[in-house]
Amino acid sequence: MEVIFRPIGIIHSPFTSLEGMPIQPSSDASGPGFIEVFPEFSDGLKDLEGFSHIYILYHFHMVKSSRLTVTPFLDDAPHGIFATRAPSRPNPIGLSLVELVRLESNTLHVNRVDVLDNTPLLDIKPYVPQFEESANVRIGWLEKAKSRMNVRKSDDRFK
Amino acid sequence: MEVIFRPIGIIHSPFTSLEGMPIQPSSDASGPGFIEVFPEFSDGLKDLEGFSHIYILYHFHMVKSSRLTVTPFLDDAPHGIFATRAPSRPNPIGLSLVELVRLESNTLHVNRVDVLDNTPLLDIKPYVPQFEESANVRIGWLEKAKSRMNVRKSDDRFK
After folding, report:
1. Sequence-ordered list of residues with C-beta below 8 angstroms from that of B106, at least 6 positions apart, any chain
2. Would you say the ipTM is above 0.95?
3. CB distance A5–B91 less than 8 Å?
4. pLDDT per residue over A134-150, tens digit each?
5. Contact between chains at B123 and A57 (C-beta distance less than 8 A)
């Protein structure tokens, strides 16, 4: 069975190559960017600007093959791909929580972007912390990588 | 341009019809369920059980058509589809944060499921609050619906 999606827009960022990219939105290296939603989807943006943060779902379009175990940027041991945010997933869907700074017609000005320039956008969802209240969160292998989370940058390992 | 994905598993829940379903994971009505990851993806689950919460991405397979504005369960006014979590989206991708209770071979026992039984699973990502630290969150039109968030249930409007 196949599920077929079509991009609804394009994500623009300062990051034109995988090397040196921030590895997640809260990284010190993540930066401002803008998202162009194709005009035929403009009506879907109504009332979005009331939200300060949005999830963007996108296609990791530069990933050519998937792997089931990877050694992520924040560790030197291999982990199952589903226990990481690495892009080389069976279905290469990316998820980032970004800050929505301003909506200008069908262009979203955003902050904390950790996405490659020209990435195809698949969906936008409002971020509602109340939907995701979580107590006693454990973060597995990442626990010991905490101190490096916001400074570590990408390299080309997932090309 | 098309992006083609293939399910990596199936989500099982107590919810066999859209009517009466919880509308999001933190709802009082959300319940336990299990996720069957297809055996060929088992290796990708290594070390996942260190995480207490995971994002599941899935295909809203019962949605037959998309709408750009919808009147969501928590309001009586229409909003742009991207300012809601409603399933009838241009690309019907669902996102839920669920609690991972136990991993048993390639079966994930989860809690706080707000997904229809037999929903095709597209991806699993670890939940890492540190990746998504957000200050000064505003939640737009949902602000005035706060008190109803955890009790309101689904009906068949997005069939």
Report:
1. B9, B36, B37, B38, B39, B41, B42, B45
2. no
3. yes
4. 777 888 887 776 766 66
5. no
